Amino acid sequence: MVMRKATVHDIPGIMEIIKQARAYLKENGVDQWQNGYPDENVILNDILNENSYVLVSEEALIGTAAVIFDGEKTYDYIEGKWLTDGNYGTVHRLAVASPYRSSGAAGIMMNLIERLCIDNKMQSIRIDTHEDNKPMRRFLKKCSFKYCGIIYLEDGSKRLAYEKLL
Predict the structure, then answer these.
(1) Which of 48, 91, 102, 121 has its CA at a distance of 20 to 30 angstroms from the CA of residue 85?
(2) How many Å apart are CA 83 and CA 133, to the nearest integer?
(3) Quick one: pLDDT band at residue 102, thresholds 50, 70, 90?
(4) In sequence order, what DSSP letters do the residues of 51-111 get, joined into one string?
(5) Phi, psi (rounded to 5 degrees) for 139
(6) Are 108 and 55 in contact (CB under 8 A)?
């Protein structure tokens, strides 16, 4: 498995992974990604801003994530405390194709994201998730992320915020 920057040609595959993740969240009673977000325009914007990455095995798209190195406006205010005030990479829209769920693919992708953040001189990685997204919360704990507090999205939605020092 390798991780590479996504291209516009990857959009159909990325959207299929997101569709599968959306269905998984709905099946598990998680009201996240149920309003059409992220849509094709969000993914295209990630690609054009060179923030979109895909995990690939033998030409098959296995996972997708946005990794951003220039901060996250919604992380400026937190009810709690971040682990560091230094440079951080932000991970958004992390998803793995259904056939690869519970295969370790998400962990491999997160390890590659950590390496990418280190290569870009980041001191930590930050990520947030819906409070009902227990599978993601377990995954973040397994990846040694620490719960830091609550952040609010631009629409006022509450999210649980995590950080991992690199």
Answers:
(1) 48
(2) 22
(3) confident
(4) -EEEEEETTEEEEEEEEESS--GGGSS-EE--S-SS-EEEEEEEEE-GGGTTTTHHHHHHH
(5) -60, -45
(6) yes
Predicted confidence (pLDDT) at residue 59 exceeds the cutoff of 90: no
Give residue 28's identity as a one-letter amino acid code.
N
For residues 109 and 3, the answer to whether their CB atoms sit within 8 Å is yes
3-state secondary structure of 22: helix
C-alpha dihedral over 39, 97, 135, 19, to 10 degrees? 30
CA distances for 56 relative to 41, 112, 145, angstroms: 22, 12, 24
The burial class, CB within 10 Å (0-12 / 13-18 / 19+), for 91 is buried
Is pLDDT of 31 > 90?
no
What ranges do the domains of the chain cover?
2-165
Q: Which fold has domain 2-165?
A: Aminopeptidase (3.40.630)
What's the Rg (C-alpha) of the chain? Answer: 15
Tokens coding 161: 């915020």
Token look-up 């969240």 returns 25
Burial of 99 by CB count in 10 Å (0-12 exposed, 13-18 middle, 19+ buried)? exposed
